[in-house]
């Protein structure tokens, strides 16, 4: 026995009014009229009425799930939106082949498209600069005071390691400087969507050959070396873990291991050999990408929304170029007569004569000065193809501006290379709009990619004895966070009006709205190095007996700035404003065991000449 359940129709809410036959009806009124017809029909033909009510209930349920009345117009399914609505899909559910195609096309554009290469070089120059991001160690003592000795040693270790960190060797010996490695790292993220690296320990022999201060090197791994098609479980894999495009994920959604091929899939040296994937713990692999979704495991090329527009721009430019080439060709259309006759200066043409160009190509290949055989009617005509389009430059510029809008921190004038119509205010506004995005990229790249490498390097330095006499391994392991703190310095926004910006910086410091440290950082400089260089300059001038007024002129010191309160400055320039405080013997700040070197006296400011 087949049972049919009849759903009770739910009255639809009143919708937008519709004018029918000169009268105004609402969706509620139309629904009530339909119900009245059903009741009348139920008296005459109950079976038909039940069928109509069931169909009406089904349509109401379908409408409530798919369309409904009211709400968001963009969510309605009608003839206006049915071609624009997409499937509900997150980043992890995007088909792998689509992600790979985007990755391949992005790399191809970087090889062949000048605008794509310009965007990448702009990002590298503005985010990383010529020397890459550099750490500013911020190690502290247990009492929170700066640990100056550790900071200076850590900065020296970073600079000494920059020439030997690449596992392939030193620069010009197979490897690269870490500044160039940073550019490759950022480029890989932009084009392929991911960045992978693996810290590799070095033997004593390898360390000496590389002239490396610590036995540590860094291996960058191409994102396509992830075993993306690997789906089977192995003996090393936990039974409940799953593999997602080369990443082993546990039940809690955390990556626990990476399966990496030993060579690139398209390595020409592999020929037809079968590759093997090795399992690395997540703690052994660095992985950086930009997440567009909360539960995303792999990155996608930043060029994904730009590929079609960039391809169209290149195709349009090519079409305009060919149109201009065809416009330079004056083509003669010749129709020989049925009977043999002469063409030009009495040249007799054969009746079955066919035209070819100088290279023997058929008539379909057009060249300047070509004559086309159009049949036997004895007519001659001249045609000049139209082109180029006078508005082509404006349209290509518009498309390039659209491309620039999709890449963070890139101005349209940078891609076009056309500053003819730019003004001071427009370029300044563009810089003010672009640099917050660039500073965000710097911060993200510094703490996602550079900070983990810096921490590995510091740990290796502590184990290698690089910090002996400053901190022991046991003390470091007790509070590693205090020793691994750092900030990162990179390129900053260049001034369009340097004089005005310098005056503003000076006023901010005088009004206690800023500090010399912050203003130096705004220029991309380390204030410790600035003060050290000024001190070195003053000492060198004193040693060379440069006249003090000339030194004041070099340093920009005015007469007003040389007025110093004698109550707070001693005869030899020492600071007497704060009384010395006694420290407990044996405390960390007690320097009685190792008295500091005698500080040089402050340089005496010369009097007016």
Unreliable segments (pLDDT under 50, ≥5 consecutive)? Answer: 1-25, 341-347, 564-568, 590-594, 596-609
Task: Give the helix tally.
Answer: 17
Q: What's the story with the biggest beta sheet?
A: 4 strands, antiparallel
Strands side by side in the biggest sheet:
6-7-8-9
Number of strand elements: 16
Quickly give the structural class: alpha+beta
Strand fraction equals 5-15%
Q: Calculate Rg over CA atoms.
A: 38 Å
Shape category: extended
Mean pLDDT: 76
First-to-last CA distance? 117 Å
Helix content: 25-40%
Layout of helices and strands:
Elements (H helix, E strand, L loop, with lengths): L17 E3 L2 E3 L1 H18 L1 H21 L29 H17 L1 H14 L6 E4 L10 H14 L16 H15 L2 E7 L2 H7 L5 E6 L20 E3 L2 E3 L5 E7 L15 E5 L4 E3 L18 H21 L3 E4 L7 E2 L3 E2 L22 E3 L6 E4 L8 H14 L6 H5 L7 H40 L9 H6 L1 H5 L1 E4 L8 H13 L5 H7 L4 H17 L4 H8 L54
Parallel strand pairs: 11-14
Antiparallel strand pairs: 1-2, 3-16, 4-5, 4-10, 6-7, 7-8, 8-9, 11-15, 12-13
Helix pairs in contact: 1-2, 3-4, 5-11, 8-9
Describe the structure.
- There is one protein chain.
- It contains 17 helices and 16 strands.
- The strands form 6 sheets. The chain has a 4-stranded antiparallel beta sheet with strand order 6-7-8-9, with no helix packed on it.
- The model is unreliable at 1-25, 341-347, 564-568, 590-594 and 596-609 (pLDDT under 50).
- The longest helix is centred in the C-terminal third of the chain and has 40 residues, at 424-463.
- Among the domains are: 1-85, no CATH class; 92-122 and 148-288, no CATH class; 308-340 and 351-383, no CATH class; 526-577 and 597-609, no CATH class.
- By secondary structure, the chain is α+β, with helices and mostly antiparallel strands.
- The N and C termini lie far apart (117 Å).
- The chain has helices at 27-44, 46-66, 96-112, 114-127, 148-161, 178-192, 204-210, 307-327, 392-405, 412-416, 424-463, 473-478, 480-484, 498-510, 516-522, 527-543, 548-555, and strands at 18-20, 23-25, 134-137, 195-201, 216-221, 242-244, 247-249, 255-261, 277-281, 286-288, 331-334, 342-343, 347-348, 371-373, 380-383, 486-489.
- A hairpin with a 2-residue loop joins strand 6 and strand 7 (247-249).
